[in-house]
Amino acid sequence: MVHINGLLAALSVIALCAAYLHDVALHYRSLESNTKHEWGVLRYHSERNKAQFKVTNPDLEIAGQYCLGTNDIPHHECFAVIEGFATQITLFLDTRNDIAGLAVTAIGAPQTTPNVVINSAQVAPSPNKTPAVDSSGAKKSSKPATEKITKKRIITKTDDEGGEEKK
After folding, report:
1. What is the CA radius of gyration of the chain?
2. How many Å apart are CA 110 and CA 63, to the nearest integer?
3. Residue 7, pLDDT above cutoff 50
4. Beta bridge mates, 104
5. Across residues 139-153, what is the average pLDDT?
6. Scanning 68, 86, 122, 153, which has its CA 20 to 30 A from the CA of 54?
7. In angstroms, rounded to a whole number, what is the distance separating the alpha carbons of residues 50 and 117?
């Protein structure tokens, strides 16, 4: 019975740790030959807000233009077209700290392992839709001041007999 409780406790710790880890496998696909090569795994730990990239294919030779992609994030099968190796991977997080997108930079000297940058989602301030109150306590209207003007017209009719009638 003690072994079962210990095993259940260990499995719950492993499941809890796995919930905070997000692995994204990245691959290069040649635009000329359409061949796919595994490049590495991006591991993001949401609890610590840290990420690292591990190259799984260090002997990969890149020549020409390639499409960088992943099947682990929707709509990222080919999210960047670059020539050479990526030097920086930017991770975009949503408000729940889940991976929402990726971007790469291929500027600078080639590196065996690219830098990883994390961009968290920022909640934008919502606009104040209530009108401001001035110092006298009266609400200021956002509408321009309008003035109602009433004009009265007097119509004079002359009949056949020469009499005038005003309306």
Report:
1. 35
2. 13
3. no
4. 89
5. 74
6. 122
7. 9
C-alpha 21/C-alpha 23 separation (Å) is: 7
Q: What is the mean pLDDT of residues 57-76?
A: 84
Contact 117, 89 (CB under 8 A): yes
From CA 82, how far away is CA 68, in angstroms rounded? 7
CA distance 101 to 13: 28
The pairing of beta strand 80-83 with beta strand 164-166:
unpaired
How large is the average pLDDT for residues 123-147? 69
Q: Are strands 36-45 and 50-55 parallel, antiparallel or unpaired?
A: antiparallel
Structure tokens, 94:
């949503």
**Domain assignments of the chain as residue spans, ordered by start:** 18-119
The mean pLDDT of 43-68, rounded to a whole number, is 84
Residue 141 pLDDT: 61
Residue predicted with more confidence, 136 or 107: 107
Band of the pLDDT at 25, cuts 50, 70, 90? very high
> Residue 56: which of 68, 70, 42, 44 has the closest Cα?
42
Q: Measured between alpha carbons, how far is 28 from 68 in angstroms, rounded to an integer?
A: 5
